[in-house]
Amino acid sequence: MNVARLFLAAILASPFAAPAKTPNEGRTPVKPMVTSAARLPIEGKMPSFGRASEWLNSPPLSAANLRGKVVLVDFCTYSCINWLRQLPYVRAWAEKYRDRGLLVIGVHSPEFGFETNVDNVRRAVKAMGITYPIVIDNDHAIWRAFENEAWPALFFVDAQGRIRGRYYGEGAYDETEEILQQLLADAGHGGATQAAVSIDPQGVEANADWENLRTAETYVGHARTGNFASPGGLLRDKPRVYAVPASLALNQWALAGDWTIGREATVLHAAPGRIAFRFHARDLHLVMGPPASGAPVRFRILLDGRPPGSAHGLDVDDLGQGVVNEPRLYQLIRQPGRVADGTFEIEFLDPGIETFSFTFG
Question: Which fold has domain 210-360?
């Protein structure tokens, strides 16, 4: 990350504190230092959205449509937990400042193949209550034009169409809102000082428990995975019957059953099949989807060998039972009490499941 290009100061924090998510690694976030928008750097004109393949919630917008608007450009991909936890703040800013000259534009630049399907994105946008414009950027042309580096990323654009800074990752919400207020005030849209939005995010959007987070995002496709512990290691792109070892060290994972570990996804050929993961976090999520046929896949989970009970996530019941019927992030564990090292297991009762990455909070 080129910190010299930012108007922000680095946070000295743990490796798991509010990371931005990049295509290859997590990055330590940076925190806005808000004084006056006049002191923000000018990075140049905002690139055009002309390369967008499609727009949701809006007709295509050109520079002429945006003239005089303060624009917050939000780079996203709908299964990203870091973006999902930032989303309630962006939604609130879009609503609060809409009539004062702010326009939020989401740029959906997909991480996984299923996120290039516009119907999937459209369904996710509706389910998440997003009403501001979303640009479909399946070939990452807009990502490259902005020289973006991560999900989520916020770009601040003044009323003259100039990029005045960027912010990678979660957090610093009050400071970010102050920048929006200042840019709006400089554009003649009211005073700069207002109370920040009051947010009580729920469900998957709730802020992470950073103090108890000791496990990082773990991909299960071979292109970016690590800490795989099944005996004999992984076999790339070919079917193999795997087994879970007698014990797992913290942050190790393993497979049991007949799987193919592909570059992006790991796919189960015959049910049942199982994944085990030794983790330390309040929340555990798994990005997964049904087979190409769309047939639902039933599953059940265990935490330390037992049904999760009150530690179940949104997408399972207290017995640990759930169904995968669309490709997205599934929240499987949310622990209500003390957080300690635990062993998570998920068993799939139907074949064809595609699994992509574990994330934690």
Answer: Jelly Rolls (2.60.120)
Asked whether the bond before 272 is cis by omega within 30 degrees of 0, the reply is yes
Helix, strand, or coil (residue 348):
strand
Would you give the end-to-end CA distance of the chain in angstroms?
24
Domain layout of the chain by residue ranges: 3-205, 210-360
Q: Which CATH architecture has domain 3-205?
A: 3-Layer(aba) Sandwich (3.40)
Query: Cα separations (Å) of 238 from 241, 267, 330?
Result: 10, 10, 26
Which amino acid appears at position 219 of this protein?
Answer: Y
**Contacts for 71 with CB less than 8 Å, ≥ 6 apart:** 46, 102, 103, 104, 105, 157, 161
* Digit-coded pLDDT (tens) for 62-105: 888 898 999 999 999 999 999 999 999 999 999 999 999 999 99
Pair of tokens at residue 60: 């295509």
Would 3-205 and 210-360 be classified into the same CATH topology? no
Q: State which residues of the chain have pLDDT below 70.
A: 1-38, 191-193
